[in-house]
Amino acid sequence: MTVTNGKRKIRYAVVGLGWIAQEDVLPAFAHTENSQLVALFSGDPIKRQKLGKHYGVKTYSYEEYDNYLKSGEIDAVYIALPNHLHCDYTMRAAKAGVHVLCEKPMAVTEQECEEMIRACLENKVKLMIAYRLHFDKANMLAVEIVNSGKIGNPRIFNSVFSQQVVGDNVRLKEPISNGGGSVYDMGTYCINAARYLFQDEPIEVVALSASIGEKRFEKADEMTSALVRFPGERVAIFISSFGGAPVSTFQVVGTKGDLRMDSAYSYQDELKQQVTINDETQEQSFPAGDQFAAEIIYFSDCVILDKDPEPSGEEGLADVRIIRAINQSAQTGQAVQLGEFKRQHRPNSDQVIQCPESEHPEFVNAADPSGQS
Per the database record, which ranges form the Gfo/Idh/MocA-like oxidoreductase N-terminal domain (predicted)? Predict the structure, then answer.
């Protein structure tokens, strides 16, 4: 993709200073030429003081959000808040005429997604959901291979995405009804990958959740397994888990061969791709890169050039409706039918942006999901 790096820089405020923001979003701005970090928002005064000093930017409490949106000092926000806050903070930014790059999942319900889309359209601001893998070379090459016919007709997608999550992490504090649980957090990647690899939208889901009864899983599922039916009698199967060792892999099985990705959803490890056709296997590896910088560069370019972003709000909505159906099926034990959903745009290799891997900073009052600070 050709990126416009002119004199204009899109000015960003990062809203929410948890692990993902500190680990990846804030350092990513150093790898951009068309984007500038100018402000941070947090409810934690220690985070504001230390991180504001480290990055040399202004800091604010959440109570100051609305006034700052009207200040004229920013062009866009990067929303890295817990899932149930995405809609509210997006709507407020949109009404102030500020563009929005929002972490996934987009929101908790389809209604919230639709409200976000409508608010951004009405206020003529850009809305993009932070699907960083849409800019990743390994994953977009997988799309090309699967849809080239090399492995025949793709029939099966299967995936496991798991990690250990400590009990005081927000992913387990929030009940599923409020956007917590493994499907909102990790299953989103599996769902999105199945959709961009099959280039289609599912029509039915069947799911179940399992737990060994640990206290940390009182509000949210330990793991959920889903079977997702696509048109043409294609099937995607995945397991998302907060109670397993770190695994990130998917496989697409076609009528002539298969494609496998290891560290498929990662941004820290080398991504490995393996294609097997007629018992002959070809392997290649892709170095880790700064996928967060890539998505920020792309979104800033969309603002500068007045282009509609992909992944759009509609892409976020597409996944949220499936997440909701999966959680409903797991709770009721019944299959859930999905209504028709049209998507005109799919990610492809034209969007690939490669940036060098960022150095990982020390955390301030934050820890990764496994509790490592």
Answer: 10-131
Cβ atoms of residues 74 and 66 within 8 Å: no
To the query of whether residue 189 is one of the catalytic residues in this protein, the response is yes
Could you tell me which residues are beta bridge partners of residue 260?
A: 251, 274
Buried b (16+ CB within 10 A) or exposed e, 166-187: eeebbbbebebebbbbbbbbbb
Average pLDDT across the chain, whole number: 94
As a whole number of angstroms, the distance between CA 121 and CA 300 comes to 17
In this structure, the dihedral spanned by the alpha carbons of residues 250, 254, 259 and 265, taken in order and rounded to 10 degrees, is -30
Domains of the chain: 10-132+292-312 (3.40.50.720), 136-287+320-337 (3.30.360.10)
Catalytic residue among 9, 104, 126, 137: 104
Q: 79 with 299: CB under 8 angstroms?
A: no
Active-site annotation holds for 53? no
Question: Do 321 and 188 meet the contact criterion of CB atoms below 8 Å apart?
Answer: no
Catalytic residue among 60, 78, 89, 189: 189
C-alpha gyration radius of the chain: 20
* CA-closest candidate to residue 148, choices 264, 256, 262: 256
Question: Is residue 242 scored above 80 in pLDDT?
Answer: yes
| SS3 call for 143 | helix
Whole-prediction pTM value? 0.95
Encode burial over 234-249: b for 16+ CB neighbours within 10 A, e otherwise.
bbbbbbbbbbbeebbb
